Amino acid sequence: MGPLAEQPMTGSIFERCGGFATVRKVISAFYDKVLDSPRLSHHFASVDMRALIDHQTKFVTSIMGGPASFPDAQIQRAHARLGITRAEFRELVELMVGTLAEHGLAEADLAHVRQELDRREPLIVTRD
């Protein structure tokens, strides 16, 4: 078990994990893995990664119960023209959950994050 799993189960996941600094560190590690993925890296060839990491930090903060909000319509609009497949989405989810686990997030918190990501699959996947 990592240091995040040792935190008492009070407050939000965001609070238990250490706030923005920790979430940003996790998101940076996550995108290192995404950029190494032959299946996923092509989606990020011309992307400003600093801006994307900032944006994704806020998104993950929101699904962890932190002070950010991303309405479903905004998520759908942002991904509408990206041509993300179900297989790509599944890999992204696995990389995200795996990275959070490596940073010590508790099993119950990992399950919550996975559920929140899975709920958004229809908003993000636009092709088979």
Indicate the topology.
Layout: H1 13-17, H2 20-36, H3 49-63, H4 72-79, H5 86-102, H6 107-119, H7 121-124
SS content category: mainly alpha
Radius of gyration: 14 Å
* Major pleated sheet: none
**Mean pLDDT, rounded to whole units?**
93
Give the number of DSSP strands.
0
Q: What is the CA-CA span between the terminal residues? A: 37 Å
Fraction of helical residues? 55-70%
Topology pattern, helix = H, strand = E: HHHHHHH
* Number of helical segments with 4 or more residues: 7
Determine the strand fraction and express it as a percent band.
Answer: under 5%
Q: Uncertain segments of ≥5 residues (pLDDT<50)?
A: none
Question: Which word captures the global form?
Answer: globular
Q: Key terms for this structure?
A:
0% strand; 128 residues; mainly alpha
What's the short story on this structure?
With 128 residues, the protein is mostly helical.
Structural account:
There is one protein chain. The chain is 62% helix and 0% strand. The chain has seven helices and no strands. The protein is globular. The protein starts with 12 loop residues before the first helix and ends with a helix. The relative contact order is 0.19. The model has no long low-confidence stretch (mean pLDDT 93).
